[in-house]
Design a protein that fits this description.
37% of the residues lie in helices and 20% in strands. It is built from five helices and seven strands; from the N terminus they run αβββαβαβαββα. β3, α2 and β4 form a beta-alpha-beta unit. The longest helix is centred in the first third of the chain and has 20 residues. The N terminus is likely disordered.
Length: 174
């Protein structure tokens, strides 16, 4: 294993530990998207739920949007909810949603240090993008700081379903 890969794996494990240790009770997660639709984790039981925190000024965030769009369009067992953070105005977020053709609901998350931030309900967001994946039973089974792609999520879900064990389904970070 190369030194870079070793450090990456250690950082991923540390972020996963910190994220799961500080995460709020998932039953409390209740979010309203830009269209006024309410998403509560307890209402989404039976589906995989991917929460993706992003910021309009984050170039890495825009890299993963096409992958997330494909994932949302290609599977009926997953719900993706994007949470826009640290933006100057909601108009700029709306513009970028249209420009990048975001095909999943987006929540206006405000500033990360806001006491009402969605991050307070879901878990720490040390970097943009940061994603949380909930299994159909409502448990957080993966956190990922940095970009994600469709293959990572689909491989994780496949392995999780095959093993029914979150410990053995941890993704490999390259």
């Amino acid at each position: 294993m190369t030194y870079t890969r070793f450090i990456t794996v250690l950082l991923f494990l540390w972020f996963a530990f910190v994220s799961s240790a500080g995460a709020a009770d998932p039953v409390n997660f209740k979010l309203a998207d830009t269209a006024g639709n309410i998403y509560q984790l307890s209402d989404l039981k039976g589906k995989w739920v991917l929460i993706n925190f992003w910021a309009p000024w984050c170039p890495l965030c825009w890299i993963e949007i096409p992958e997330l769009n494909q994932l949302q369009a290609g599977r009926n067992d997953i719900v993706i909810i994007g949470i826009a953070m640290d933006y100057r105005g909601e108009d700029s977020v709306q513009y970028l949603m249209q420009k990048h053709k975001i095909g999943f609901p987006v929540v206006m998350g405000g500033k990360s240090n806001d006491p009402n931030s969605p991050a307070k309900q879901i878990g720490p967001v040390p970097f943009y993008p940061t994603s949380y994946l909930y299994a159909p039973d409502g448990q957080v089974v993966m956190t990922k700081t940095g970009t994600i792609d469709r293959n990572l999520i689909e491989n994780f879900i496949f392995k999780y379903n095959a093993d029914k064990s979150p410990e053995s389904a941890q993704p490999v970070v390259d």
